[in-house]
Description:
The chain is mainly alpha-helical. The protein is built from two helices and no strands. It has helices at 3-24, 28-57. Helix 1 (3-24) packs antiparallel against helix 2. The radius of gyration is 18 Å and the shape is elongated.
Amino acid sequence: MPMTEYDALKRLVDEAGDDVQKAAGGNKAAGTRVRKKMQEIKSAAQEVRKKILEGRGSEPETPQQAI
C-alpha cells in the first residue's frame, strides 16, 4: 500500500517548512538544507508514484467499450 510512502513524503515536506521560511528570509545555510531536503522529497515522491503504478498493474483490467 502506498500510504507508508505517502506518509514519509508528507513528513519530509513538514520538516522542510521551517528552513523554507528561514531561506526566504535570506539564511543561506537554511537554503542549503532546503535544497538537500527537496532532493529527498523528489525521491520520496518517485517512490509514491512507483507504488501507485504497481497497484494499478495488479488490478483486473476492464474491457474498453467502443464508442
